[in-house]
Amino acid sequence: MAQKALTAVISTRSVDALVQGKPDSPIALEAVRHLDALFEIERTINGRDADERRAVRHEKSKPLLEHMHAWLLRGREALSRSSEVLKPMNYMLRRWDDFNCFLDDGRTT
Questions:
Q1: Does pLDDT of 9 surpass 50?
Q2: How many domains does the chain have?
C-alpha cells in the first residue's frame, strides 16, 4: 500500500506540474499518455493474485517504463534550463527507482 501511495504521489505531482506549467505542451501531453498506459495495465490486473500482477508488470509495464525513462532523458536534454516542464521531469527522474518498485512487488495493488 505504501508503494502505491508513493507511485500515485510521484505521478500525480509530476504530471500536474507538467500540465500546469504548460498545458498545451507536447511534452506534458506525452507524459500523461505514458502514465495512462501504465494505469491501464494496472486496471487489467486488478483482482489478480500477486504472482500474476508481478508477471504482467514485468511483461507489459517494465518495457513502457524503460521507454518512458529514455523519453524523459531525451526530453530533458532538448529543453532549456528555464523551461517550466524541466522541474517535474527532473523530479520524476530523481525518484525513478522509487517509481519502479511496484514492478517487483505483486502485492502492491
A1: no
A2: 1
